Amino acid sequence: MTGFYLKLFLVNFTAMFAGAAGCYLFKLEPPAALLAALYPAGLFAVLITFAAGPFHAAASKKIAGAACGAEIYRTRQSAELSIGLDYNELFSLVHRYLKEKAGFEIAEADTRTRRITARSPITLKTFGNVIIIEFDNTDPILTKLKILSRPRLSTTMLDYGENLKIVLDIRAYLLQNATHQ
Predict the structure, then answer these.
(1) Distance, CA of 162 to CA of 104 (rounded, Å)
(2) Which of 41, 90, 107, 114 is the most exposed place for a label (fewest CB within 10 A)?
């Protein structure tokens, strides 16, 4: 948890410091510009870290439930499953869930590469997410799949648990419905 707040602070401080220093360099000498940029950068980073950070942490904990660990705060979430369904049946089940149940836009669904890529819509929390499902049907009994959900923008620091929810929802749906096929 401490690592999450430290990373959030450092990224925000660095970005704000670079912008403020660039603006102050037009008005002041370089040493004075760099010193002048420290205050707004530090203030901005502290405010973002301790104002928005706890909301992200609380939302992630609420979604994760009892499964709390440092990984729930990440914006890039993944899970691996092995399901006792034929590859083609599982592929169509996943495709149907992503398109019809979750309402995601399917960007790629290729049975040759054994991969489905979908995009979630833009929300008030994020600019959307990219969901990638990769299948491995080398085992004759079980079809393995890897679920990955990440923000569409790689610079996204806070998603308020949205990618965690996407991965957990897909996992729960597949585990529940794979036995009913």
Answers:
(1) 14
(2) 107
> Among 7, 117, 120, 105, which residue's Cα sits nearest to residue 56?
7
- Mean of all residue pLDDT scores within the chain: 90
- Beta-carbon neighbour count of residue 105 at 10 Å? 13
Both structure tokens of 170: 């897909």
Please give the Cα distance from 78 to 80 (Å, whole number).
7
pLDDT digits (tens, 9 = 90+) for 135-175: 998 888 889 999 999 999 988 888 999 999 999 999 999 99
Residue 72 C-beta-side C-alpha neighbours within 13 Å: 18
Task: Check: pTM over 0.85? Answer yes or no.
Answer: no
Q: Which two tokens stand for residue 179?
A: 């036995």
Instruction: Please name which of 89, 117, 110, 60 lies closest in space to residue 174, comparing C-alpha atoms.
Output: 89
* Whole-angstrom distance, CA of residue 173 vs CA of residue 96: 11
Residue type, position 10, single letter: L
Nearest-Å Rg of the Cα atoms of the chain is 21
Q: Which DSSP state fits 82?
A: E
- pLDDT-derived band at 67 (thresholds 50, 70, 90) equals low
CB of 133 closer than 8 Å to CB of 145: yes
